[in-house]
Amino acid sequence: MDFTNYSLCIIAYHGTFDAAADNIIETKTFQSNFRDDHWLGQGIYFFREDFEQAKQWGKSAVEKQLRKGHIKKGKIAVIRAILNVERKNFWNLDTREDLIRFNKHVLKELAELEKQKIELEISLGESEKLRCYFCDLIDDDIYLIQRTFSGNSYLDQYKMLMDMGLRQHGTQLCVRNQHIIDFESIECIKLEEISIFNLRQGKRYNRSIVFE
Q1: Is the pLDDT of residue 1 over 70?
Q2: Quick check: is 207 in a domain?
Q3: Minimum mean pLDDT among 58-67, 145-154, 191-200: which range?
Q4: Which of 49-58, 102-111, 116-125, 166-175 is the least confident region?
């Protein structure tokens, strides 16, 4: 019996703005943009079992569209999806087992670069770009990657939480193959509307360090 492989059914939340959500529901496809500093490489991003964090990400998505002048107002939208994946096709970098796998993968790729006398054009201080680079080189049969990241939050003001070491984290899921998404069960909720006026009165946050 293989104790290391089993089927997983994961509840995941994707924050976006209303027009993008409508397109996802209609086409049954998520669109992703290439970036060299994605959290876990190229893919579609969800928060694992965290509606509130996806809601905040949706708020950021609306504000981004407003700042670019693409829209004058928009609603926060959160999509709930079920991800069905076999454990062998899932790297959970929160576990010791898969972090060891990832480290072996990185060492193998570094050895290959050295063998071919290719210099890695990313500095050691660019952690997000380094992580993205090596995640993009993971074999295609890994359909899903998970990692929990920490960041600043308004919850940091509560001393008792801080004394107990309970800081806000966000568990990111990067879907690398959309066939694990059960599009028939997808649901979407649209929340408050934000206008350009609201944006001018509000605050701006850095996506990489702040969980509201």
Answers
A1: no
A2: no
A3: 191-200
A4: 116-125
Q: How many CB atoms lie within 10 A of CB 14?
A: 26
- The answer to whether residue 208 sits within a structural domain is no
Tell me if 124 is assigned to some domain.
Answer: yes
Per the structure, the complete domain to which residue 172 belongs is given by 8-201
CA–CA gap between residue 67 and residue 35 (Å, rounded) = 19
Taking the C-alpha atoms of 187, 190, 196 and 202 in order, what is their torsion angle to the nearest 10 degrees?
-100
Kind of pairing, strands 73-86 and 7-17?
Answer: antiparallel
Q: For the chain, how many structural domains are there in total?
A: 1
Cα 114 to chain center, whole Å? 31
**Given a cut of 80, is residue 208 above it in pLDDT?**
no
CA 102, 104, 107: angle at the middle one, nearest 5? 110
- Asked, for residue 41, whether it belongs to a domain, the answer is yes
How far apart CA 53 and CA 46 sit, in angstroms, is 10
**What pLDDT, on a 0 to 100 scale, did the predictor assign at position 212?**
47
